[in-house]
Write a structure and sequence with these properties.
The structure holds two protein chains of two kinds. By secondary structure, chain A is an all-alpha fold. Chain A is about 75% helix and about 0% strand. Chain A is built from eleven helices and no strands. The mean pLDDT of chain A is about 90. Chain B has a domain of about 170 residues: MetI-like (MetI-like fold). Chain B is about 70% helix and about 0% strand. Chain B has eleven helices and two strands. In chain B, strands 1-2 form a two-stranded antiparallel sheet. In chain B, a hairpin with a 2-residue loop joins strand 1 and strand 2. The model of chain B has no long low-confidence stretch (mean pLDDT about 90). Classes of the chains: A mainly alpha, B mainly alpha.
């Protein structure tokens, strides 16, 4: 070991070369930090291996028929998750439609000079607190507030427009629409936050140019700001969809847990996450195999959607630079 | 006047359409206001319900007694409150050290390394993991191995959800420490460890704490990962002189879920009271973390 500082008289200075102990401590601590990083990577590998590995017996037994099957009956050893996949996608897309509209509107409202900064901060806090409320509390609120509140409207729609496939059945309690509404509230903060970032990344000059050409406030927003920020906003929507697909509690409490494939907004349905939440607690070894298989399917769906979402975000960030 | 428009059609006269355009702009502004107000309704409705339905039931008795069975009146959720604290504590013990150490590596030791790029990607992917899959993972890893539902199993599930939040916020926080401060310390002969402990961590600590507290708040409210890892219990963790950590453990979130589906008014009132307590815990942590993490530079 060379000692470049050894010739200097350092005894009464704060500057000193590290002592041998300090070097050992340094090496040890850096080793610990490496360990931390390795643990993160290990966690991802372990997640895939644990869930994937435990799903293998189920995959061998039920194969692709599991994904295409429509009956879930443990007593007859029949397992199919197509209704759950349908319910997951349908409820998430409905939630995205509602939550996406309000989320993007909120982002426009908060970034495009509608409010004095202080009032904008109030609304921003409201949206952030919306994200902090636990999903099980939303579920409880959905049961006792949302379902009674939309029942009159649902009954009216069913009676007058019952011939449409969307209003085919009446709302008997839990169902797809209340679940999707609550889901929309839960993904709104994500969409609003990421869209705000996208809108803020648009250079001020771009908007000023639009105003300079005589555009009204909304013409500037709709024809200049939104198209410029489109990639980022699209990424926000995909990330919101990813959140909706994996959300469990609100759906387990509100969707009705009934394995049927229906376009009707008022009929009970099921989702993958709700299926897991409901069946795991009392599953025997045979059922655990198929539930692991269902978990793997859910993991793959959310992984693909989230990867698409984050690569869109990456594209929009690179585009902004 | 000469037509400046690129298209072949004559440009619409500005004078004639201006009123219409302004009107449309005003209408859309009204729509934006309406959307913002509608989007705020759920928060206030939730808070209103919590305060009226949960607040009316809140008392010392509710916080300290065991859950009632079936038709029983009274009771509370003392064991669930304790269970939530224990499991969030276990999760924090696992997730905070790992997360901060990894965050230090990502921000200070090797920000550009291949390992850091992989870990960053892994952490970002983990943030998108549905919380129920964290439960499935802990079930496969801990419950199937030890053979019983337990508080540590719930803690592991919550830790899986906390780690990515801690890593990413710690990295962001520690990256913000000005380079000149670190360079000055290196120049005085500090090892990297000394720079981290004496310069980077003290400076970045408020922001790191914000991330940690947000992760704790998230974990405290999670239900799905606990459903089949900790399950639920109607008894105290510490009962008859022995501490039973390796058995089913109650938590506030699972109690709300279980009681919300019961046909008894007493249980439903307790579910609202438990929701109020849970939301207060989560909101207080959130607000304190905002105060700590306010930018100072």
């Amino acid at each position: 070991m060379n000692k470049p500082f050894a010739v200097l008289p350092l005894h009464d200075s704060v500057c000193q070369p590290p002592t041998a102990t300090q070097l050992v401590v340094d090496r040890g601590f850096r080793g610990l930090c490496h360990l931390g990083v390795f643990l993160i990577l290990l966690l991802v590998v372990a997640l895939v291996v644990e869930i994937g590995g435990k799903a293998v017996p189920g995959m061998q037994k039920y194969g692709t028929g599991f994904i295409a099957g429509t009956v879930w009956d443990p007593n007859q050893l029949q397992y199919g998750i197509l209704p759950a996949i349908w319910g997951t996608l349908y409820s998430s897309l409905l939630a995205l439609l509602i939550g996406g509209f309000f989320g993007v509107m909120m982002a426009i409202f908060l970034t495009q000079d509608f409010l004095p900064p202080r009032l904008a901060a109030v609304f921003r806090t409201i949206i952030e607190l919306l994200a902090a409320i636990p999903s099980v509390v939303y579920g409880l609120w959905g049961i006792f507030v949302v379902i009674p509140a939309i029942r009159p409207l649902a009954d009216w729609l069913h009676q007058t427009l019952g011939w449409l496939p969307f209003f085919k059945s009446s709302l008997s309690g839990p169902g797809l629409l209340p679940a999707a509404l609550v889901l929309a509230i839960m993904i709104l903060p994500t969409i609003a936050a990421v869209s705000q970032d996208a809108l803020r990344a648009v250079p001020l000059k771009t908007k000023q140019a639009a105003y300079g050409m005589g555009a009204t406030h909304w013409e500037a927003i709709l024809k200049v700001m939104l198209p410029t920020a489109a990639t980022g906003i699209f990424g926000a929507l995909v990330l919101g969809l990813g959140r909706a697909l994996g959300e469990t509690m609100a759906l387990a409490m509100l969707v009705g847990n009934s394995n049927q494939i229906s376009l009707s907004l008022f009929s009970p349905a099921n989702t993958l996450a709700a299926l897991l939440a409901l069946n795991f607690p009392e599953a025997g070894p045979a059922e655990v195999e198929v539930l692991m298989y269902a978990s793997l399917v859910l993991m793959l769906i959310t992984l693909v959607v989230n990867l698409v979402g984050s690569s869109i975000m990456l594209m929009s960030q690179q585009g902004a630079k | 006047m000469r037509n400046l428009s690129v298209s072949d059609q004559p440009a619409p006269s500005l004078q004639r359409t201006l009123a219409g355009r302004s009107l449309r702009s005003a209408l859309l502004s009204g729509l934006a206001w309406a959307c913002a107000l509608i989007a705020s309704v759920p928060l206030f409705s939730v808070l209103y319900m919590l305060i009226t339905r949960g607040g009316s039931r809140l008392s010392w008795e509710v916080l300290s007694e065991l859950p009632p069975a079936g038709f029983e009146m009274g009771g509370g959720f003392g064991n669930a409150l304790v269970g939530t604290f224990v499991m969030v504590g276990i999760a924090a013990l696992i997730a905070i050290p790992v997360g901060i150490l990894a965050g230090i590596f990502l921000a200070v030791l090797g920000p550009g390394s291949k390992l850091a790029t992989m870990a960053r990607f892994a952490a970002k992917t983990l943030t998108g993991l549905p919380s129920i899959l964290a439960g499935v993972f802990a079930y496969a890893l801990v419950v199937l191995t030890t053979g019983s539902y337990s508080a540590p199993a719930g803690g592991v599930a919550l830790a899986v959800l906390m780690v990515p939040i801690v890593v990413l916020t710690a990295e962001e926080a520690l990256k913000m420490v000005p380079k000149v401060m670190k360079d000055a310390a290196y120049g005085m002969g500090c090892t990297r460890t000394q720079v981290i402990w004496k310069i980077v961590l003290p400076t970045g600590m408020p922001a790191v704490l914000t991330g940690v507290m947000l992760a704790v708040a998230r974990a405290a409210g999670e239900t799905a990962p606990l459903l089949f890892t900790a399950l639920f219990s109607n008894y105290w963790l510490y009962q008859d002189g022995s501490l039973e950590l390796m058995g089913p453990t109650a938590s506030l979130a699972v109690l709300i879920y279980n009681f919300s589906g019961m046909p008894f008014d007493n249980q439903i009132e307790l579910a609202w009271a438990a929701s109020l307590v849970l939301v207060m815990i989560v909101l207080v942590i959130n607000i304190v973390s905002r105060i700590i993490g306010r930018p100072r530079f």
